[in-house]
């Protein structure tokens, strides 16, 4: 005997459809929350809000030398980059063991450590210098940038630094001191850069890298090799980077040489022929943002360098602190 099917009334049919739709939406939301939770566990810079929404906070480590650490009273390009992140509405956390510039009483730095000296990144390093008076109190000052640093040194330190200060992205600006202080030639500096990347990946296999090439500086008598070494290194670096990149750990070039207005004949954006003045700090920050936007899809547009009445940055020269290099530091050390 076949029982006749009961036809649902229109109101009951609508109610049943709404119920099924609600159940489906609930299952989709649960699946998405599970996926976001797993992503948050994989990505050190991601976290879950109380509403179950994924809010990525990018952990950025700036690795560099004096051009990144800055002297006492500088704004630093790190600050200009931090401003850009805020203007873009991008949550960011600068990480690293240091947070100051180089104070004016910094002693002379050795050209290179002795061959039998073990590197100790936790040893006393003078980083108690302040910033320009106009720098925001909210500025995230953490970094891993020290006067005189070479990638030949930092390649042996980066694993321990990342273990203590995990990062998602490294912004790297090293190389000049390797060639200027005879740690290595251009090819050897590229080799050190590759070792740096491998050691950093040992701490975080999903780490991303934005690596700046080396800018020129004004001519130094007796160092005719420097402009040549700089050009050779930059060409080798550009050629090597595609071979270093992986799907999980991309490596991208930052064209600092092309965007920093400094050359052997003149350096209008440097206060000593290389180290950035207020305008130079903007140019360095802009070079990095170009790569962040174009290669990593971080941000929607690169940093714009402000123009003020009387010329670029004429209103940004009121720096506190010294007017030159930290006392006792040779002007070729970065």
Automatic annotation (TrEMBL):
Key words of the record: Hydrolase, Membrane, Transmembrane, Transmembrane helix
Transmembrane segments: 12-31
Gene Ontology MF term list: phosphatidylcholine lysophospholipase activity
Keyword Hydrolase: yes
Cell inner membrane found in the keyword field: no
Alphabetized PANTHER family for the sequence: CELLULOSE-BINDING PROTEIN (PTHR30383:SF2), THIOESTERASE 1/PROTEASE 1/LYSOPHOSPHOLIPASE L1 (PTHR30383)
Protein's recorded name: SGNH hydrolase-type esterase domain-containing protein
Organism: Aspergillus pseudonomiae
Species classification: Eukaryota, Fungi, Dikarya, Ascomycota, Pezizomycotina
């Amino acid at each position: 005997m076949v029982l006749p099917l009961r036809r649902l009334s229109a109101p009951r049919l609508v109610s049943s459809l709404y119920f099924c739709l609600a159940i489906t939406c609930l299952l989709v939301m649960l699946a998405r929350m599970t996926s976001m939770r797993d992503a948050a566990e994989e990505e050190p810079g991601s976290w879950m809000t109380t509403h179950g929404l994924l809010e990525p906070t990018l952990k950025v480590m700036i690795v560099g030398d004096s051009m990144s650490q800055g002297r006492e009273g500088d704004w630093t390009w790190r600050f200009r980059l931090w401003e850009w992140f805020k203007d873009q509405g991008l949550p960011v956390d600068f990480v690293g063991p240091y947070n100051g510039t180089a104070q004016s009483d910094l002693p002379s730095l050795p050209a290179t450590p002795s061959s039998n000296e073990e590197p100790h990144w936790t040893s006393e390093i003078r980083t108690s210098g302040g910033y320009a008076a106009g720098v925001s109190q909210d500025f995230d000052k953490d970094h891993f940038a020290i006067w005189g640093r070479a990638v030949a040194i930092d390649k042996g330190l980066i694993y321990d630094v990342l273990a203590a200060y995990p990062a998602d992205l490294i912004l790297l600006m090293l190389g000049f001191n390797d060639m200027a202080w005879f740690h290595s030639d251009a090819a050897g500096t590229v080799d050190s850069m590759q070792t740096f990347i491998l050691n950093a990946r040992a701490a975080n296999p999903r780490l991303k890298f934005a690596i700046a090439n080396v800018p020129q500086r004004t001519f130094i008598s007796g160092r005719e090799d420097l402009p040549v070494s700089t050009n050779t290194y930059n060409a080798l670096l550009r050629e090597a980077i595609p071979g270093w990149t992986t799907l999980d750990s991309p490596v991208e070039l930052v064209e600092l040489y092309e965007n920093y207005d400094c050359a052997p004949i003149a350096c209008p954006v440097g206060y000593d022929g290389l180290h950035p003045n207020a305008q130079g700090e903007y140019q360095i920050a802009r070079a990095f943002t170009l790569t962040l936007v174009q290669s990593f899809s971080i941000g929607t547009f690169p940093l714009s360098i402000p123009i003020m009445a009387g010329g670029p940055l004429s209103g940004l020269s009121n720096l506190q602190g010294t007017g030159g290099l930290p006392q006792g530091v040779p002007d070729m050390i970065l």
